[in-house]
Design goal:
Organism: Pseudonocardia xishanensis
Distance between the termini: 8 Å
Shape: globular
Strand content: 15-25%
Number of helices: 4
InterPro entries: DMF_alpha_dom
Protein name: N,N-dimethylformamidase alpha subunit domain-containing protein
Largest sheet: 3 strands, antiparallel
């Protein structure tokens, strides 16, 4: 992991609490607290490779959403298996959790990941 990314993860880790995750779940579109904006800017930004970066995908407008992964320019996106959400906010929150976990900031199975 590059030094900047590792340093930033270490600085953000104390901000990623169950309350912060719940605040995103309750209102994924915002407005957000300063702390949540810091975390979102990091997990949405260029510190995470675009290849295989998860995002919310409309499967059927207004009632079915899923997760997909970005691929190389000009290639079709990869739709994630199994996870279907009934609302856009649910799908956006699932993406947030996946991105947190990819950076070692959160783990649903443990409640919180301690790995960088």
């Amino acid at each position: 992991m590059p030094k900047f990314q590792k340093t930033r993860v270490e600085a953000l880790r104390p901000l990623v609490t169950p309350d912060l995750v719940a605040a995103h779940r309750d209102n994924p579109r915002g407005p957000h607290s300063h702390e949540l904006n810091l975390v979102l800017n990091f997990v949405r930004g260029p510190a995470f490779s675009m290849d295989r970066k998860p995002f919310a995908l409309v499967l059927h407008p207004y009632d079915e959403y899923g997760l997909a992964f970005m691929t190389a320019r000009g290639e079709s996106v990869e739709v994630g298996p199994g996870s279907v959400y009934s609302s856009e906010p649910e799908a956006i929150h699932a993406v947030f959790l996946q991105r947190l976990e990819a950076h070692g900031l959160w783990s649903d199975s443990e409640g919180r990941s301690q790995n960088v």
